[in-house]
Amino acid sequence: MCSAVVGQYIPCSHPDDEQLHEIAEWAVKKYNEGLTLLRILDCEKQVVAGINWRLLLKCRHENIGENHYYQTVVYDKPWEHLRELVYFHRLYPHE
C-alpha cells in the first residue's frame, strides 16, 4: 500500500476544475492586471493548515502581446475566507 507523505505536493486529479480555474484567475489578477490566463498546464496541491496550490500557467501579456509561462503558489483556506499569493514568477521565454 502506498500513501502520500503529510505536507508533500501531490498532483491535482482534475486540473480543469472550475474552482482551480478561479484560483488561477485570482493569482494572475493579483500579480499583474496586464496578464490574461490562457491555460493551467499543471497543478499540484499541498495540504497544510489550508491548501497550497502550485500551478504552472500559460498567460498572455497584453501590453506586449506575448505569451509567457509562470509558476505560482496560492495558499487557500476557504473556511476562513483567506487566500494569499505566496509567489508568482515567469519561468520560460515567451513564445
TrEMBL record:
CDD domains: CY. SUPFAM superfamilies: Cystatin/monellin (SSF54403). Pfam families: SQAPI. GO terms for molecular function: cysteine-type endopeptidase inhibitor activity. PROSITE patterns: CYSTATIN. Keywords: Protease inhibitor, Thiol protease inhibitor. Residues 16-90 form the Cystatin domain. It comes from the Eukaryota. This is Cysteine proteinase inhibitor 5-like.
